[in-house]
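Run folding on both entries below.
>entry_1
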Amino acid sequence: MRAELQAALAEFALCISYGPGRGNCSRISGERQVGVVWIASMAPAQSYHEMVADALLAQPDLLAVARDNALRWLANGAQAADMLRLWDRLLAQAQAGPAGMAELQRILRSAEPECQRLREFAPLAGMIPREQRRQARDLCGYRH
């Protein structure tokens, strides 16, 4: 999977810059609500994708939401279709068992450039509540 990820990222060598703080953007701290499950932060601050990783561990059913997003975006002609297909495979593997979930967690939490690049195409809308997304955006160094 790692070689496939690197190949897909190389193929989409678009240079998208979100300004200062890219990769470690969207920092928040405290507790946040994910659906009906409360998750206490282990660290003083977490990135948006770390929050999503925690939500997916607490509620694995959210993987279906992310897969639905990827498939819907593909059906609507979204750009970067290869990246969305790669996300669909990653999410399907995470649904299939612990090894797939571990790989997804690694991608969502890693500071490796290829993981950061892949997260730019993540179909993770709807994973965390609006208020937590707003807090993450407000604490980000870039004005969205």
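>entry_2
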Amino acid sequence: MALLSEALSDHHDLNPFDSDRAELNQWLKQEARKAHHAGTARVTVWTDEVTGVVVGYYAIAPTNVAPDGLSRKARAGLSGPIPGYLIVKLALRQQLMGTGLGGQLLLDALETVAAAANVAGGRLVVVDAIDERAHGFYAHYGFTPIAGGMGSGVPERHPATGDGPEQRRGA
């Protein structure tokens, strides 16, 4: 299956999407376009190149992270809020789970964040792990919990290259 990664637009039919998580399905169908058009998050969808069916999505927003609970390395000597990016939502169609595409979807999101950080700055990537299964998914790819609960994390290593945060930013 050939997949396209593209910005959410009005031509995408979101209704058939089912990730097996009601919260993620509902957000995509009812909130994603609003957030994308309002500029509060940028939503990217993966579509089947042949059918155009949406098979995955992620949403990214800028954020600031309180330095409490961050490692000295992650704080990079900063004492105030640390600028970064939040992967607000990330979901894959239920039928594609367990195929390795979830990791590729995360990599696509991280590459988008890296491109944004090269233009606008930002030190961290945090995620919203909605439950223990999502927490395990992100932990598998090197995210570690930070203050504020299991819902947030910082990747210690890039899932594709193994580079740490400094190498990803080119610092």
